[in-house]
Every structure is written in structure tokens, then in C-alpha cells.
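Lab notebook, bench 4. Still working through the backlog of constructs that have no structural model yet. Next entry is a single chain of 280 residues. Request: give me the C-alpha cells for it.
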Amino acid sequence: MTSTPTSPLVTPAWLSERLDHPNFVILDVRTPPSGGFVPGSVHSDYATSGWRATIGAAPGLLPEPAVLERLIGGLGVGADDHVVLVAAGATAADMGNATRVYWTFKSLGHDAVSVLDGGFAAWVADGRPLKPAAAVRPPVAFTASPRADLRATLAEVEAAVAAGTTPLHDARSAEQFAGQGKSPQARAAGTLPGALHIDNGAFYSGTPKRFVNAEAVRALADKAGLALDPAPITFCNTGHLASVSWFALSEIVGLPGVRLYDGSMSEWTADPARPLKNAG
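Model written out:
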């Protein structure tokens, strides 16, 4: 699998200079796409194309490597390709389309991947060219080299809760963290015992609609009392919003060892015997 050094975030200007670069794939993961496409980009709907798997009560789990190999290879993405992911860009939640797919590529051992900062909205606001339809690339073979260190399994989270030594970060809304509301995907309200809260939206600045810098991410963690050593486990309801905070901590700050719990509260609350804090 390629080990080409890449920046986790790229600008519209950077991307514009590389539209015709060989071994370079622009992957639009909007749900649904509207307003055209970055020239040359292929589209794969984040919500419907198979980027996440439902297993039991958990609707957002990482699919098996063979499933993802077929999905990614079918889009024309090979092991030597640098992938740039394009989300809508309006909010942190829709940037989660890109950060979750980014985490997926990294979990498969494919490091040549970046996110277009500000997404499609930034590309349009910059006055860049558009195409009315997505491109289609011929299928290729994509072979994963899975790594387990970016993902927290249910068993690992149970152990972390029991030990109380691993920082746990709840990326949901303050209301859900406090147990005053819940997602339909969660059986019960509340959060993981010992968890601290930073809303995922804090990592994506509302006015310029860009990710905040590493200093700002560290300041948010410090304000919340979230220790960064050992590295945190981040979670939400289905592993979507938490991918934004995983991206901020792991990729923008460069903190090694940050893990995403993709089962999140949908999986955790499925068993009434598992403990909850702030239970509603």
C-alpha cells in the first residue's frame, strides 16, 4: 500500500493545480450531490454506497475489508492513487462524510488520502470550474492492508470504561451528552461513564467553514479537561460525527493512537446491562 506523504487537508487552489495529475482521484462523497462536480471527480454516495455496515444494533460499523476492496476498486481507485475527498462543506456534520471515509482509507492501510477543506462549498466560493456530471473511472484491483490501531472495538471500550484510564470523548451535542435527548439509533439516553464532551461542530469553524487549526483543537481539549495522553477514544451515535473529532485530534494535531469507536452509542446502549452516565 502506498506510503506517499500527504497533507490531511488541502485547499481548492492546491486541488485545482492537480486536476489532471496521474494517480490522483477526486472522490465526491456528498449525500446527495447537487450543483455540479469538481472536474474529473467520481461520486460515491456516503449514505447508500456501502461505506458503513449495519450489524446488530449498530448501523455505522466499518465493513469487512473485502467489501471495501470491491467498493473502492470499483470506483477506479488503486493502491498507488492519492485520493482527495469532497464533502458538501456547509457544516461539521456533512464534513463527516469526508472524515469518516478518510478514516476508512487509513484503516485499510491507504495513507495517500486528503480532505478538501471546506468541501464543495469552498470550491464553488473560490470560483473554480464545475462539471455537470461525475466522471467514471475503469474498475481496478484495490487490496487493503488493514490496521486495527485506529478503531476501538466494543470489547476495547468496555475495558476502557472499566479501567477508567483512557480518555473518552463524546462528540455529540451537549443535550445528548447530558442525557436530555438521544438519537433514534441509541436505545437509551446518556453517555459512556467517564466521558468528556466537545461538540464535533467546534472543530469546524462556522464563519469561514474550514477546520480549525491544531492550536485551537488542543485548546478545545484543554477547556473540556480531555487528556491527550494516553490518546482518547472518540465516539458519537454511529461513528459519523466522531470521525470529525478523530480527524481533528489524529490528523490536524497529529496525535498518535487516537481511536474511533464506530459502534458508538447505538452499539453500547443495545445491552441494558452496560453502564451509562447522565442516563435519561
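Notes after review: The longest strand covers residues 24-28. The radius of gyration is 18 Å. Flag for follow-up if needed.
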